[in-house]
Design brief:
With 87 residues, this protein is of the alpha/beta class. Helices cover 25% and strands 32% of the residues. A 5-stranded mixed β-sheet has the order 1-2-3-4-5, covered by helices on one side.
Amino acid sequence: MIFVIKNTLFPSNTYIVSEGRYCIVIDPGLDANLIVDTLKKRELIPLAVMSTHGHFDHIFSLNDLIQEYNPEIYIHKDDHHNSDLTQ
């Protein structure tokens, strides 16, 4: 199943791709609460977060997801320096 979260603070989308209870979050934008609420409402556990690139509107909620779920993080090596990863 694919869920699309339309970020309200900046025009970008976050995608949640799930199978069963597990999912991958793609491009966690500026609405961390909305992303986490969607995961909890649907009882999904993110195993990984993938950012298509390192712009703020694609990684802003990354640290919130790391603190809440500790997923694997995937981002292109050239964009890793743009993101403020805590792992």
